[in-house]
Amino acid sequence: MFFANDRKYFFRPLNSKYREQAVECLRQLYACFYSSMADYSRTYNREQVIEVFQEAITRTPLLDGDTDDEFAMPARGERDLANWVLNLLIEYGWLERLADEATLQSTYAFTRFGRLFTQPMVEAAGGRFRTRHRNTRNTRNALQSFVEQGEVYDLLDAFEYSERIISDFSDVIAELDERKRALVQAVEAQQVVQRASDEFFDFMEKRFMPDLSIRLSADSVEKYRDEIQALLNKARRKQKEFKAGAERELRKIAPELQGDDSRQSLYLMILNGIESRMHNASEVMLPALRHALNSFTRRADIIIRQLSYSGAGHPSRLLAICQEVAAQDESGQAARLAAAGRVMAALNVAVADPDSLRLNAARSRREVNTAVEEHGEIDKAARRALLIQQALELAFSVNNKEMRDYVVAALNKGHRIRSQHLPVENAKGLLMNAHAIEVGSAGQNSSEFAFRVEPTGQRLPTDYFVLTDEFIIELIETDRHAE
Which residues pair with residue 95 across a beta bridge? Predict the structure, then answer.
């Protein structure tokens, strides 16, 4: 369980009106410990941590909160607040106190879960460079290294990189939707066409060109999909000894991937997982990214055009006229409005702007039959016919499990049998005999054994059929389950 021991109320430091200060303290301490400016030869005592927290609190605004907040401390100075935040983070499992037995002094560090949950806060604040568009190439390179060198760590790296491809697509799509909403809100709040256009082109130059354009061209999943598929096929065609060794190493290194079925091959599961993720990235996520980018650019184009046509950001003649009319008395307002009405009532013929004309495709209306028909009661003859039909369908039905058990019993601890030698003891056995060759497709669910059905090219008479094709049914051991 996650919420156990000292993590029972893990997120309580982020529930008070000081939550912004707590998050900023975690970010600053994370930067001191793990960023490029970190001094790994230095340990932080309480006084040094308090200094970091105090600086973060000074630069962070206080959120408005209720006065009866049970998780908030009384109003005090910044140093008292830094001490209170430090004690809170230690109490609820974000930080831990380490005692030095030699000097009897305490140092402070992140707990494992504290570091894991602080990292996305640091990444969300920006300022960290990530080559998110290289995960497709990283998947290809790791798979190629595994096929050539046989290191299972490369296969696990490829499995992890393929997972990041999907998450990166989701992050970019969410960012595009968020920027589209922010653009609309900024325009509604300020109605400044210059700022709206500047923000749009700033995003296109600083975000689209360095990352999205590479993701859609140089690092497109469509570009590397065939190459990755070829490497997956090579890994599947490896010799049995190679796959058995890789299976043993994977079970030793990553037992958490095994799941409930201990007979499932981790080697094949990882290869199938990479193949499935590449398919989803190419067929689902890439079109979704293109749709989100198209929607964002169209929305920005519509807003900028609308603001340009309306003359936003410049003195409005309509607003000036309204203010002028509002300053007049009632008789003056009535006269001005009456004059405007006479002008508007006149017929005005003009040529329409071609840019404003749009030819919409005609839509065919669906016709839905909503009539309700009342069915009469089924008579005795219809019920009798229905019962006979159900009995016949049940009598002549054959499922895969029964077919598999029938052939296994006929083999009688052997491995090969000819279709003409299959036993027929009753009507059900005759039906199984007629469908026996279907076991070639029905017995493929096992990860260790499978049936192979091969025609001999001969046609022979039997006790029940005038002439039948002869087949050899063989039970073989596959290499899907590596020993």
Answer: 110
Neighbours of 124 (CB within 10 A): 10
Measuring CA to CA, which residue among 87, 92, 118, 103 is closest to residue 43? 103
Q: Is the pLDDT at 372 greater than 80, yes or no?
A: no
CA distance 50 to 462: 93
CATH architecture assignment, domain 5-124: Orthogonal Bundle (1.10)
User: What contacts 167, CB < 8 A, 6 or more positions away?
Assistant: none
**Closest C-alpha among 289, 273, 282, 286 to residue 160:** 273
Contact status, residue 125 vs residue 207, Cβ threshold 8 Å: no
Two tokens at 357?
């004309």
* Radius of gyration of the chain measured on its C-alpha atoms: 37
Tokens of 157: 């790296």
Give the strand pairing for 416-418 and 468-477.
antiparallel
- Between 213 and 176, the more confident residue is 176
Taking the model in full, what pTM does it have?
Answer: 0.46
- Tokens found for residue 411: 């083999």
Distance CA 179, CA 128 (A): 19
- Whether the CB-CB separation of 407 and 441 falls below 8 Å is answered with no
Which residue in 215, 197, 145 sits closest to 302, CA to CA?
197
